[in-house]
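Researcher: Please predict.
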Amino acid sequence: MQTTKFREARLPWYTIYPAVSEFSGAVGAEAYEEWLRNLPADDPVSLYLHVPFCRSACWYCGFPTTITRRDAPILNYLAALRDEIRLVSERVPKTLPVSDIHFGGGTPSLIGPAEFLALMEFLRCRFAISKTATVAIEIDPRTLTPEMAEGLGAAGVNRASLGVQSFDPIVQKAINRIQSEAQTSAAVEVLRRHRVSRINFDLIYGLPRQTVESCVETVRAAVAMRPDRLALFGYSHIPSQVKNQRLIEAEFLPDSAARAEQYAAVAVTLIAAGYRQIGLDHFALPDDELALAQETGRLRRNSLGYSADTCRTLIGFGASAIGRIGQGYVQNEVTRDSYIQHIAAGRLATSKGHRLTDDDRVRAAIIERLMCDFEADVPAICVAHGSDPIRLRDSAERLAMLAKDGIVDIENGFVRVRREHRFGIRAVAAAFDVFRDGVMYIPQQLNAMQSTT
């Protein structure tokens, strides 16, 4: 059987388009200031606050974090974070309304209760936070204290995302993250007791020494705690770029076929437990916001993954934080020290970004619908953006090859990914990515695409 072949390349997760790899220094603090000043004054915005600290290193993690046993570095960083919030709020037209706030990391729950309450109060002084706003935070159950859970509830946090990854002690040892079911269950209980009622779990497959059986056992234990949604991510082993991954025993990593089997087993188990599959890697109870957004065609994809957030503007705070404004994307300095230096000097810490073109916007809209719905009405999206579909001629050629290999069906420009190939949705999205020629793949092994970053 003749197979479609693209130039070999790593694929983005297509949380945003263009990907961060296309950002450049051509967009910096000056452009960001201009974009902030021209924000629509009455449009709700989302806020993302990045807190890059952990108590210990998980060997699988590819996020830039600082390992600290002391609170002093966290407190110093919080001072810079407050200064950045002030700098940004002084540059927008008026007090902006906010409908979504997300604290990511790292482990933002390492902020002490008093400090977190003070930070939320500062945000409320600088922004008009809706009483119904979603306020979410990422949590390591191993370090969550009852006092912090109480503080989160008092501060108005109503959603928590708990890192679980795997409950298999053999896998936990292989990734340097020892976390019992009891610790996780206790964290869920104390959060719910303090009105942090919406709970997410993060799981990972493709880890060293992981098996289909251990993945299913982990899911069954997780489901017993009844989180509202679960995210299921594939481990990406790139030790050349992520130093702590060099401590992982690569010879014990499952191969592509085993990874696909693990994913399928987890998906079947979650669906049987009453969860609905959302896009590529999320599962949610029927009454969760993601499931409702999917039902009504409002599911979105942003830098945090799948979301029901419909805000057009996302303002990012903290080292490496990404923001989305109508004109384009911006990213702060990645390293903590460089970020703090810029803020201390009284200037925004924007280091790079991307100014969106009309072509970027139409391609981004198509890719978002593919990633969310596994289908896209390409001509209709082009018309909505005032674009002629003929401008996507490069994509048409790639799609024709995908259709020839039975990956997609195309009818009058409407693209639908076949159910058995949804696992390889990123390869289909790449057909519309003008920054990439695509990726070499064999249709029978398309599931292996999940292993790239």
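Model: Residues 377 and 411 are 9 Å apart (CA to CA).
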